[in-house]
Design brief:
This protein is of the alpha+beta class. The protein has one domain: 2-Layer Sandwich (60s Ribosomal Protein L30, Chain: A), CATH 3.30.1330.50. The protein contains four helices and six strands, in the order βββαααβαββ. The longest helix has 14 residues. The protein is globular, with a radius of gyration of 15 Å. The chain starts with a strand and ends with a strand.
């Protein structure tokens, strides 16, 4: 069995609090938070997964395929991830590790729903998705409540 690991990162700043754009993180809507300043839905988790896939396949999803989809009015990060997954070819997902830094929203009650949504989109078992979240203790702009940052490590294998 041959393993590969990809690292992905994404971050977005929040829109003003009176924005009507929904805040979507990990495919889950957070009602008590404004959406992100982005030409897409700004889902930092799904976008970071796309970047991790790019580091494995070398197919540029964000800044490439996703931009083309945005021009057609397709701004859903789930669509970008579904397209990115196609580029894995015969590789299968072994595990996805996600870490999120943000002062807001509070993630504790949303970890399981995000894991379930990501597993559903990626057609993997929820046990293959791990998510941690940290407030960052005020050390970065994300930890001060200006936006959300996400890092992921994606491990895939080929038999």
């Amino acid at each position: 069995m041959k393993f590969k690991a990809g690292i992905g990162q994404d971050s977005h700043r929040f829109l003003p609090s009176d924005s009507s754009k929904p805040c979507i993180i990990g495919g889950v809507v957070f009602d008590n938070c404004p959406g992100f300043l982005a030409n897409s839905d700004g889902d930092v988790v799904l976008h970071a997964i796309c970047n991790a896939i790019t580091s494995i396949t070398h197919l540029k999803i964000l800044g490439g395929l996703a931009d083309e989809l945005c021009e057609k009015g397709i701004t859903d990060g789930r669509v970008y991830l579904e397209e990115a997954l196609k580029s894995l070819g015969s590789h299968k997902v072994s595990h996805l590790a996600v870490t999120i830094e943000a002062k807001k929203p509070h993630f504790s009650s949303f970890i399981l729903p995000m894991r379930e949504k990501i597993a559903e989109i990626m057609s993997i078992d929820v046990s293959q998705v791990g998510i941690t979240a940290t407030s960052g203790e005020g050390l970065t702009q994300f930890a001060c409540g200006e936006g959300v940052q996400c890092f992921v490590i994606l491990t895939v294998y080929e038999e």
